[in-house]
Amino acid sequence: MNEKTSNRPGGAAPGADIADFVAALPKAELHLHIEGTFEPELMFAIAERNGVRLPYASVEEVRAAYAFSNLQDFLDIYYAGASVLLEAEDFHDLAAAYLARARADNVRHAEIFFDPQTHTDRGVPFAAVVEGLGRALDEAEARFGLTSRLIMCFLRHLDEAAAFDTLEAGLAHRDRIAGVGLDSSERGHPPSKFREVFRRARAAGLPAVAHAGEEGPPEYIREAIDLLEVVRIDHGNACLEDDDLVADLVRRRMPLTVCPLSNVRLRVVDDIAAHPLKRMLDRGLFVTVNSDDPAYFGGYVNDNYVAVAEALGLGRDDLVRLARNSFEASWLDGHAKASRLAELDAAAAPPAG
Ligand code: ADE
Ligand code: ZN
């Protein structure tokens, strides 16, 4: 048995093989902002098509601006980049580019966030956003069987009245919207600020997720569960500061959509070796690995798996567990979930002979 064909449950995955092993695993991506997949090349192409000027001279200059000290630093640049998106075609091209890239990473299912207010506040109709994104999602499913959902997020730095307006606009496209989320600047904008709009979303049959415990305290995770009744927590890193909360998350089997390279780039952790993902797994938390805003953070989903595997010494069984968790925490129906998990089992099994 050579290094390539060995399966070492519990053992460290051997260096050069990690990337191949990760690439072979079917997986779901559950924490991905479509606006965060906007690669500078496409940003320039769409800006030119729309006659919009970007405050950068070149792709290299854009990339050089991606040195962030915290979440807000990043958000300022991310919203500026999104401002060139005007037409349904632009949203289509953005999503099509992500889905092609995700396919290359063996992503079989993606639950994709979008920020309607980032676009409607600039006068882009909600319908244009959903029409463009939706068409790309349909094409990816028809062409290469990559299934997906759209989750509309409320910007938490804005007020709850604006979130209500956005929800009403979204409900006109109910067939396209699978759920609601909460993102943007976390500190100072607790989940409690959005309690009523999440209540209204639930009444309309929309499940909820929320970013919590990325830069904010463990109390925000508690509020997201108790007040917003979320079915997943996005990030959730801060739970490790509160043992009772960890116990509760384990008991509830609450999925956490963790984003390692994002956490490094936004200085949520000092470096990848200090990332809490292994500690989270060891404590029995229901963890998944995701890319968040891959065009800005230097890696798509496989890069995130490989980075934590190498830095934290994860074994192949851990990597399979993370891929399994991604499907189990998804909103796929029972039949589709079972068939994705069977694909994963086949890919993870050691070759016969
Ligand atoms: N919007 C896009 N990426 C985000 C993140 N990591 N946290 C909060 N809001 C976001
Ligand atoms: Zn995010």
Describe this protein's structure.
This protein is of the alpha/beta class and about 350 residues long. It has a single domain (about 10-345), classed as Alpha-Beta Barrel (TIM Barrel), CATH 3.20.20. The protein is about 50% helix and about 15% strand. It is built from 17 helices and eight strands. It has helices spanning about 15-25, 40-50, 60-65, 70-80, 90-105, 115-120, 125-145, 160-170, 195-205, 220-225, 245-250, 260-265, 275-280, 295, 300-310, 315-330, 335-350; strands spanning about 25-35, 105-115, 145-155, 180-185, 210, 230-235, 255-260, 285-290. The strands form two sheets. The chain has a four-stranded parallel sheet with strand order 1-2-3-4, sandwiched between helices. A four-stranded parallel sheet has the order 5-6-7-8. Helix 11 links the parallel strand 6 (about 230-235) and strand 7. Helix 1 packs antiparallel against helix 15 (about 300-310) and helix 16 (about 315-330) runs antiparallel to helix 17. The longest helix has 19 residues, at about 125-145. It is globular and about 55 Å long. It starts with 14 loop residues before the first helix and ends in a 5-residue tail after the last helix. Bound molecules: adenine (ADE) and zinc ion (ZN). Adenine binds near residues 33, 183, 184 and 292.
